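Internal QA ticket QA-208
Title: Verify multi-chain structure generation after dependency bump
Assignee: T.L.

Test input:
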Amino acid sequence: MRLLIRTLNPAGGEPQERAHYGEMLTLGRATDQGLQLPDRHLPLSFCELTPDGGQLDLRVIGEGAAFVNGRRTRGSKLAIGDSVDLGASRLTRVEAPADFDFAIEFRPAPDSGEEGAFGAQFKQTLELGGLARRGPSWAFVGVILALFLILPGTALISEDAAEFTRATPLPDDSLWSSGPLHTSHRFMGNDCTACHVDAFAMVRDQECVACHASMTHHVDPAVHQVAELEETRCASCHKEHNEPSVLVQGDQRECASCHGNLEAHTDGALTLANATDFAENHPEFKVSLLRDSEGMAPWTVERVALDAPALTETSNLLFPHDVHLAAEGIEGPRGDVTLQCADCHRTDPSGAYMEPISMEQHCADCHLLTFDPGMPTRELPHGEPAVLLPILEEFYAKQTLVGASLEAGRPAYDARRPGGDTRMEAALRQEALVFARQQALATAEDIFERTTCATCHDVERLPDSAEGPAWHVRPVKLAKVWMPKSFFDHGPHENETCTSCHDAEQSESAADVLMPAIDSCRACHGGGEEQVLLASTCIDCHEFHLPQHGLMRPEVPGSVLKSARTDFDRQRAAHRQAERERGR
Amino acid sequence: MFESFLTYRSGRWFWWASALSLLSIGLYAWHDLPDPPNGGTWLGYTLGTIGAVLIVWLIWLGRRKRDYGSNAGTVQGWTSAHVYLGTALIIIATLHTGFQFGWNLHTLAYTLMMIVILSGFFGIWAYARYPSMMTENTGGKSRPELYTEVAELDRQLQRLAEKGGPEVATAVASALERTVVGGSWLAQLRGEDLSEVQLPGKGRVSNAGMNAIVDFVIEHLGASRDGAQGEALRELSTLLGNRARLLARVRRDVQLVGLLRAWLFVHVPVAFACLAALTAHIVSVFIYW
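Actual output:
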């Protein structure tokens, strides 16, 4: 049917007309009805109008009844002029204009405010009772924008305003902080603009390097440029205002994103092996071995993997760990002693690394530098053959000249013979010196090639020259840090035995490298995603900012934070001064 | 047949909102970044953008439902989407926070948003509960119809009161005149009866439930020696009782309509407060990026 609905305006004014096409017109309080009856007392779906020949058929389907011309009904045919009361709304069938089958006039129920003379005097709506929506809405908008955006925002316009709002209980820009600063940054207080210098711009690197001036690069930019490292801001990795605060990322995926395929990222400039996870993908450790370049040239460093077939150390020292660590003990000058690792290897004061080994501190107790069985208390200094030979000659010269205790067969001269020349005759003196030199050389040959020195040192006899025989002790150099590309702290490992990592008890030669291979660490340390063992990520052993690569971000003068920090330093100094004075 | 906005088109928006929520939860559980979850990660920005667009759109419903000429979907469809997507906003916005809360503007915006959503839930509950109570209370009659009945009673009361003597007539007239329905919003919501009556010797006293005037009429009834006057007073007290019951229904109707709509006076202003806080939130996080 084609139905025209003319809705009267209860407040006066033009009625609204609209067309309804369909099999029927539904009427009710609900919004999905063909004609909505804005009357809370009516059911959601109340009644229906359907065409029935030339007539309109009204049928009430919800609760209640309609009143057709004042007569209560639940179903009725409507003729032109019939009016139906649906609650407080009224519907009247009127003459249909051209192009329409039917037409109705609809007078909606008056708003609840218009209750007639008696009801109209009361405040019966919440609005009349003092509640409102529009006013409070605008008030809220104004108050919130003023307190939380405009007032704190004055900090951007002037420093005075920033200081004023921060010093008073007025809302300041600390309300914009999304979380507390890391404890190391709390000294900045609520001075947001110390780091957030430019509005609508991310925190710049120069504010970071104002304090962190010595932060070194990850790669050597001269060797290869890595775009990711040049373009990444400090704050991309070091994120503030989070809870929990994580300033240094332990996440190794960032590392793996490059180190998983270094060749591609460095255009082949790096020969480092790829690594993505300590447990899953990490090359065997490499040690830095010192190589004697046999000459005056300095020692060179060779990086050798611990699983390389020709892994030998060339410290030029002769030292069997197994003999020294023998359970039954080792013969010493004062009887047998049983040595422990810690008798020689002690950590430095930090507890992380081992102190260097020295002859005087660690060996000399047992390895006495005696040279003459007849004089077991006399020792040589620990030095070069060129230094020792004259000492030996002087020693034997004196012995020869004094003579009293020398072995039989040696010429003895009494320097105090009565009536004789108190000075030795020249020929005899010469003979004594020759004898002394022979004795010294014999002793030297013994200690350099068989006993004292040769026990520990690799001593080479040089071709005899005009001055006689000579020896060369191959210089000894022990590695201080075997794995300088990572850091290892002995401290947290102190409950392990030394030999659980360093296989010293089985080592017969100083050429053995006793550094533990990766599998030894993997017995306890798992990868980044480890669930059972100790989860270990890249930065547990490797630094990102490498000291050898120069500054990562050059400092830019005039950083705002620099002055803030200076202020802080001044405050701190004043605080200390006050503390001192109080103490006094 | 009527289709509730909750089940609009077989709960189409329920499924959309559920899908959006589950997708957000799934992404949140799956995404794994070095930093603690926060609004500044890629997912944080994504959820924040969705949340902000949703808030603006949800507030737009207030505009759309007044826009009778709009063809952009039915108001019912909008309401259905409003309810379900508004509920999904709880999940989206909470995940956007990364569960980091503090005494700051950002948490204020979140709190205001939660107040708006929870007041909306109260609205749904109110619309499910009060309309049937209203119909039950008034027996399907509209308030004007009830007032018409009151007016009819008042005419009879005035006629009878004159027969009850001048004192009674004055008191009844005062009671009718000083009848109050509604009042302040609090009085409406409490369903208080603030009616009063001026009685000789007592001054102006509360006439809640018409009790004072009925007592006064009955006192006069006890003292009355005149048969016709007594009859009038008896009938007067009966009609006053009827009037009290009728007005109680009207007050209950006012109370129920008030309870039905009260949530809107929280929902709408706080929604605008939330919009302002949201604006300040977005602007401030990018000022101090």
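Spot checks passed. The two ends of chain B are 54 Å apart (CA to CA).
Status: verified.
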